[in-house]
């Protein structure tokens, strides 16, 4: 049997999405900038995707800019808004456990003369409103807070955080990395009050190499990240990835069809999985303290510390049984070192290199969960015996 529980790294592309991508690549392959019928047909796919995505977000289609994925969206949002607003100030605020595609661009901006404040987080991964309020300054131009953490699944109270920032200075740009949120949680950026929001297609059963950046208003200052052919109203040049955009639009639409039903199913499965994990000796669930509301954590991501066993050892032992998990963020798995996220929330040092991330999708089955639990119950005693030797 196979149990794929690494959906926060990437998801299986839906068959109907793959078929649409193939059709656009092999039949409706025109350049959307061309002035003939092939070009018009390609442009219609882009317009259709804009309509589908904007409906899920309850925003105007003009607020969406297509990109090559979440990393580009984050880079464009952060570097573009910093450069566009540098005359007002050079202070940026973020958290201590952002994804590398946020942290690295901000380090790059530091090298360009910007000052970045990395806020600490609570033991459950939440950003304290008071800590954010205290960090705001007259020269603050940008705040970036991830909506759903990609390693522990904590969901930030963005409405409260945005309100604090905008009350201090409505001109401060608020960006959120919503890559682990869109397609899985109800997400309305106008209600949240964010100015910029990043999304990736392959996290919601769409094609890799696709994504978008939501830009709230036409007057949101944002320097273009890519220059060239003036596509997408000069906001992101380059011939559009029409097959990928078409697939992304369909994946977005399908993600929110019967959303409540899908969310309920995943939530119940996740709760049962956590309950069964807790019954296994030496397994600790990270960042989910008792008494917290279930809505404060994404049911799609579960972080578990496994006492006495290195995460890489367990990962490969599970792989041999057909169970696919992660030791953390896929984008940082090639970089040695301990997780910034786990360190930021104060995970015990003995578990920093002994943590596994299980990530579900709406297609995860109870059989997969049961098989994973059974595999862990079989493997852990044996692996611990070898470790002790």
Summarize the structure.
This protein is of the alpha/beta class. The chain is 40% helix and 13% strand. Helix 2 packs parallel to helix 8 (242-256) and helix 10 crosses helix 12.
Topology overview:
Elements: E1 3-4, H1 15-26, H2 37-57, E2 64-67, H3 70-84, E3 91-95, H4 100-111, E4 115-119, H5 129-135, E5 140-144, H6 158-168, E6 173-177, H7 189-192, E7 196-200, E8 211-215, H8 242-256, H9 259-278, E9 283-285, E10 301-306, H10 311-320, E11 323-324, H11 340-344, E12 355-359, H12 366-388
Parallel strand pairs: 1-11, 3-4, 3-5, 5-6, 6-7
Antiparallel strand pairs: 2-8, 7-8, 9-10, 10-12
Helix pairs in contact: 1-8, 2-8, 3-4, 9-12, 10-12
Percent strand: 5-15%
Work out the radius of gyration. 21 Å
The total count of helices amounts to: 12
- The helicity comes to 25-40%
Strand count, sense and closure of the main sheet? 7 strands, mixed
**Backbone structural class:** alpha/beta
Parts with pLDDT < 50 across at least 5 consecutive residues: 332-336
What is the arithmetic mean of pLDDT?
Answer: 92
Topology pattern, helix = H, strand = E: EHHEHEHEHEHEHEEHHEEHEHEH
Distance between the termini: 31 Å
Overall spatial form: globular
Side by side, the strands of the main sheet go 2-8-7-6-5-3-4
Strand runs, count? 12
